[in-house]
Design goal:
Mean pLDDT: 81
Distance between the termini: 107 Å
Strand order of the largest sheet: 1-5-2
CATH superfamily of the largest domain: Ribosomal protein L22/L17
CATH topology of the largest domain: Ribosomal Protein L22, Chain A
Strand content: 15-25%
Low-confidence stretches: 44-64
Structural class: alpha+beta
Largest sheet: 3 strands, antiparallel
CATH class of the largest domain: Alpha Beta
CATH architecture of the largest domain: Alpha-Beta Complex
Protein backbone atom coordinates (compact mmCIF):
# COMPACT_ATOMS: atom_id res chain seq x y z
CA UNK A 1 0.00 0.00 0.00
CA UNK A 2 2.84 2.34 0.71
CA UNK A 3 4.09 1.84 -2.82
CA UNK A 4 0.70 2.80 -4.23
CA UNK A 5 0.61 5.96 -2.11
CA UNK A 6 4.10 6.92 -3.33
CA UNK A 7 3.04 6.40 -6.94
CA UNK A 8 -0.03 8.60 -6.48
CA UNK A 9 2.06 11.33 -4.87
CA UNK A 10 4.68 11.07 -7.63
CA UNK A 11 2.03 11.34 -10.36
CA UNK A 12 0.49 14.34 -8.61
CA UNK A 13 3.91 16.03 -8.47
CA UNK A 14 4.54 15.30 -12.15
CA UNK A 15 1.17 16.68 -13.19
CA UNK A 16 1.84 19.84 -11.18
CA UNK A 17 5.22 20.25 -12.91
CA UNK A 18 3.62 19.75 -16.35
CA UNK A 19 0.88 22.24 -15.52
CA UNK A 20 3.49 24.78 -14.38
CA UNK A 21 5.41 24.39 -17.64
CA UNK A 22 2.21 24.81 -19.66
CA UNK A 23 1.34 27.96 -17.70
CA UNK A 24 4.81 29.39 -18.37
CA UNK A 25 4.46 28.70 -22.09
CA UNK A 26 1.03 30.32 -22.18
CA UNK A 27 2.38 33.41 -20.43
CA UNK A 28 5.31 33.70 -22.83
CA UNK A 29 3.08 33.27 -25.89
CA UNK A 30 0.58 35.83 -24.61
CA UNK A 31 3.43 38.31 -24.02
CA UNK A 32 4.66 37.73 -27.56
CA UNK A 33 1.15 38.08 -28.93
CA UNK A 34 0.63 41.34 -27.06
CA UNK A 35 3.95 42.68 -28.35
CA UNK A 36 3.07 41.75 -31.92
CA UNK A 37 -0.40 43.30 -31.52
CA UNK A 38 1.11 46.60 -30.41
CA UNK A 39 3.54 46.54 -33.32
CA UNK A 40 0.71 45.68 -35.73
CA UNK A 41 -1.45 48.46 -34.30
CA UNK A 42 1.35 50.97 -34.88
CA UNK A 43 1.77 49.74 -38.44
CA UNK A 44 -1.99 49.77 -39.00
CA UNK A 45 -2.36 53.35 -37.80
CA UNK A 46 0.39 54.54 -40.13
CA UNK A 47 -1.07 52.66 -43.09
CA UNK A 48 -4.62 53.85 -42.38
CA UNK A 49 -3.40 57.44 -42.23
CA UNK A 50 -1.79 57.02 -45.64
CA UNK A 51 -4.87 55.29 -46.99
CA UNK A 52 -7.18 58.06 -45.81
CA UNK A 53 -4.99 60.62 -47.54
CA UNK A 54 -5.29 58.67 -50.79
CA UNK A 55 -9.06 58.40 -50.45
CA UNK A 56 -9.40 62.09 -49.75
CA UNK A 57 -7.44 62.99 -52.85
CA UNK A 58 -9.65 60.70 -54.92
CA UNK A 59 -12.75 62.36 -53.48
CA UNK A 60 -11.44 65.77 -54.54
CA UNK A 61 -10.99 64.51 -58.09
CA UNK A 62 -14.53 63.16 -58.14
CA UNK A 63 -15.88 66.47 -56.82
CA UNK A 64 -14.22 68.28 -59.70
CA UNK A 65 -15.87 65.94 -62.21
CA UNK A 66 -19.30 66.25 -60.56
CA UNK A 67 -19.42 69.97 -61.28
CA UNK A 68 -19.80 69.34 -65.01
CA UNK A 69 -23.22 68.48 -66.37
CA UNK A 70 -23.27 65.45 -68.62
CA UNK A 71 -25.99 64.06 -70.89
CA UNK A 72 -25.79 60.52 -72.22
CA UNK A 73 -27.69 58.31 -74.61
CA UNK A 74 -27.11 54.62 -75.26
CA UNK A 75 -28.38 52.19 -77.85
CA UNK A 76 -27.98 48.52 -77.01
CA UNK A 77 -28.22 45.42 -79.19
CA UNK A 78 -28.13 47.40 -82.44
CA UNK A 79 -27.91 44.97 -85.36
CA UNK A 80 -24.70 46.37 -86.78
CA UNK A 81 -21.09 45.53 -86.13
CA UNK A 82 -19.28 47.84 -83.73
CA UNK A 83 -16.43 48.12 -86.26
CA UNK A 84 -18.79 49.80 -88.73
CA UNK A 85 -20.07 52.22 -86.10
CA UNK A 86 -16.56 53.12 -84.89
CA UNK A 87 -15.58 54.36 -88.35
CA UNK A 88 -18.32 56.99 -88.27
CA UNK A 89 -17.92 57.72 -84.55
CA UNK A 90 -14.30 58.75 -85.10
CA UNK A 91 -15.51 61.42 -87.56
CA UNK A 92 -17.68 63.27 -85.03
CA UNK A 93 -15.77 62.84 -81.76
CA UNK A 94 -15.08 66.24 -80.14
CA UNK A 95 -17.27 68.20 -82.62
CA UNK A 96 -20.15 70.54 -81.83
CA UNK A 97 -23.57 68.92 -81.95
CA UNK A 98 -24.81 70.79 -85.04
CA UNK A 99 -21.59 70.10 -86.94
CA UNK A 100 -21.75 66.43 -85.99
CA UNK A 101 -25.33 66.15 -87.24
CA UNK A 102 -24.32 67.70 -90.57
CA UNK A 103 -21.42 65.27 -90.92
CA UNK A 104 -23.64 62.29 -90.12
CA UNK A 105 -26.34 63.32 -92.62
CA UNK A 106 -23.86 63.39 -95.51
CA UNK A 107 -21.84 60.31 -94.56
CA UNK A 108 -22.74 57.28 -96.62
CA UNK A 109 -21.98 54.61 -94.07
CA UNK A 110 -24.25 52.12 -92.33
CA UNK A 111 -23.41 53.42 -88.86
CA UNK A 112 -24.44 57.01 -89.60
CA UNK A 113 -28.19 56.22 -89.47
CA UNK A 114 -27.97 54.77 -85.97
CA UNK A 115 -25.70 57.58 -84.76
CA UNK A 116 -28.10 60.27 -86.02
CA UNK A 117 -30.94 58.82 -83.93
CA UNK A 118 -28.65 58.38 -80.94
CA UNK A 119 -27.27 61.92 -81.15
CA UNK A 120 -30.77 63.41 -81.39
CA UNK A 121 -31.74 61.41 -78.30
CA UNK A 122 -28.68 62.65 -76.40
CA UNK A 123 -29.47 66.26 -77.37
CA UNK A 124 -33.06 65.85 -76.14
CA UNK A 125 -31.78 64.37 -72.86
CA UNK A 126 -29.41 67.31 -72.39
CA UNK A 127 -32.04 69.95 -73.04
CA UNK A 128 -34.96 68.39 -71.16
CA UNK A 129 -33.34 66.55 -68.25
CA UNK A 130 -30.26 68.68 -67.52
CA UNK A 131 -31.36 72.12 -68.84
CA UNK A 132 -28.25 72.44 -71.01
CA UNK A 133 -28.19 74.89 -73.93
CA UNK A 134 -28.13 73.43 -77.43
CA UNK A 135 -25.55 75.85 -78.81
CA UNK A 136 -22.89 74.95 -76.20
CA UNK A 137 -23.16 71.16 -76.52
CA UNK A 138 -20.32 69.06 -77.92
CA UNK A 139 -19.57 65.34 -78.11
CA UNK A 140 -17.21 64.63 -75.22
CA UNK A 141 -17.21 60.85 -75.58
CA UNK A 142 -18.53 58.42 -78.13
CA UNK A 143 -17.75 54.74 -78.16
CA UNK A 144 -19.16 51.53 -79.57
CA UNK A 145 -18.57 48.16 -77.96
CA UNK A 146 -19.35 44.70 -79.20
CA UNK A 147 -22.61 43.12 -78.11
CA UNK A 148 -23.69 39.48 -78.27
CA UNK A 149 -23.32 37.71 -81.59
CA UNK A 150 -26.21 35.79 -83.14
CA UNK A 151 -24.86 32.57 -84.64
CA UNK A 152 -26.60 31.03 -87.63
CA UNK A 153 -25.71 28.15 -89.97
CA UNK A 154 -25.90 28.12 -93.77
CA UNK A 155 -25.44 25.02 -95.89
CA UNK A 156 -22.29 24.93 -98.00
CA UNK A 157 -20.76 22.70 -100.66
CA UNK A 158 -20.29 18.94 -100.15
CA UNK A 159 -22.70 18.74 -97.23
CA UNK A 160 -20.74 21.06 -94.97
CA UNK A 161 -22.06 24.05 -93.09
CA UNK A 162 -20.82 27.61 -92.75
CA UNK A 163 -21.34 29.67 -89.61
CA UNK A 164 -22.90 33.10 -90.11
CA UNK A 165 -22.20 35.64 -87.36
CA UNK A 166 -24.77 38.39 -87.01
CA UNK A 167 -23.02 40.89 -84.81
CA UNK A 168 -24.57 43.45 -82.49
CA UNK A 169 -23.19 46.54 -80.78
CA UNK A 170 -23.73 48.82 -77.80
CA UNK A 171 -23.08 52.49 -78.59
CA UNK A 172 -22.92 55.41 -76.14
CA UNK A 173 -22.71 59.18 -76.67
CA UNK A 174 -21.77 61.59 -73.87
CA UNK A 175 -22.47 65.31 -74.34
CA UNK A 176 -21.01 68.18 -72.31
CA UNK A 177 -21.24 71.96 -72.45
CA UNK A 178 -18.40 74.15 -73.64
CA UNK A 179 -17.54 77.13 -71.48
Amino acid sequence: MADEKKKKVDTKKETKKVEAKVDEKKKSTTKKAEESKTVNKEKATTTTKAATKKVESKKEVVKNNEDELVATATVKYARISSRKVKIVADLIRGKNVDEALAILQFTQKAGSEILIKLLNSAIANAENNNQMTHSKLYIAEIYSNQGPTLKRIRPAAKGSAVRIRKRTSHTTIVLKERD
